[in-house]
Amino acid sequence: MKKRLVKILKSTIKKLAQWTIWRHKPLVVAITGSVGKTSAKEAIYAVFKDYYRVRRTSGNFNNEIGVPLTILGDWREISGFFFWPKVIFYSLFYSFLKNSYPEILILEYGADKPGDIKYLLEIARPKIGVVTAIGEIPAHIEFYPDRDSLIKEKSRLIEQLPVAGYAVLNCDDPLVKGMETKTRGKIMNFGFSAGAEVRIINFEVYFEADKPAGISFKLDYKGSITPFKIKGVLGRAHAYASAAAACVGLISGLNPVQVSEAIFKNYQPADRRTNLIKGIKDTLIIDDSYNASPLSVKESLVALGGIKNRRRVAVLGDMLELGHWSPEAHKFVGAFARSNVDILITIGPRARFIIEGALEKSFNRNKIFGFATVNEAKKFIKETIRRGDIVLVKASRAVGLDKIVDELRAV
Question: Of 9, 66, 141, 173, which shows the fewest CB atoms inside 10 Å?
Answer without folding.
Answer: 9
